[in-house]
Specification:
The chain is 39% helix and 16% strand. By secondary structure, it is α/β, with parallel strands linked by helices.
């Protein structure tokens, strides 16, 4: 397989009905709404990636092969086991064996744009790592073209307000890092209102993003 000019992208997902997901959002809006939003958000992220010819994209499924049948649009790969750091290491190192660079994404920022992905890929030519920070202190997008020791992935404290800063600091000990624009990812209802606005401001939304915006506009919760 070609390795230098083509990258791989893995979107980390959990499967509705098999794992708890969007629990903080569900406490406010209900489980059904939270699950529907999650699936529409996943499709929005996938739709963006499908427009990028320099990426071969995958769902990275938390529950393993038995859950692959629940996912379409993208091929599936296993996420591995253990805590988040271990799973990030598993997916990144597995894909890095076959591709020139690897992108890791969450599924909670459906307002991600084709231009942001293209810009990040452009920067990976000159930097070892590119990170898109999330407003809650984490990150929604990560690109790397250099091997990363497992100890870096597993020593970061995830789901903290300084996760992005800690990861950036550790990566700077082994290479160069470029930071792209911050986005809001959806964990709680307050995040959802920000993302709704940001979706409405997109200059060139994909079909899935348009569908999500229409769906959100019909929800009385955002009226």
């Amino acid at each position: 397989m070609e390795t230098q000019n083509i990258g791989a992208a893995a979107v980390f997902v959990k499967t509705v009905g098999l794992s708890p997901l969007k629990t903080r959002l569900a406490k406010t809006v209900g489980k059904q709404f939270a699950h529907d939003f999650f699936l529409k958000s996943c499709r929005s992220v996938a739709d963006v990636l499908l427009h990028e010819s320099r990426l071969k994209s995958f769902w990275s499924v938390a529950e393993g092969k038995e859950a692959f049948k629940h996912w379409d649009l993208l091929p599936c790969m296993e996420q591995g086991t253990g805590d988040l750091g271990s799973r990030l290491d598993y997916v990144y190192s597995h894909l890095k064996n076959d591709f020139g660079f690897v992108a890791l994404l969450g599924s909670d920022a459906p307002q991600l744009t084709n231009q942001a992905v293209a810009d990040a890929i452009g920067k990976i030519k000159d930097f070892d790592f590119v990170i898109g920070p999330a407003s809650d202190g984490g990150f929604y997008l990560f690109l790397g073209r250099k091997e990363i020791p497992r100890s870096i992935w597993t020593s970061v404290a995830y789901s903290q307000t300084d996760t992005f800063l800690e990861l950036r600091q550790k990566l700077e000990s082994i290479g160069t890092v470029f930071v792209i624009s911050e986005l809001t990812d959806v964990d709680e209802f307050a995040d959802l209102t920000h993302v709704y606005r940001e979706l409405g401001e997109l200059p060139n939304p994909t079909r899935a993003q348009q569908d999500l915006l229409i769906w959100l506009s019909k929800q009385k919760l955002l009226a």
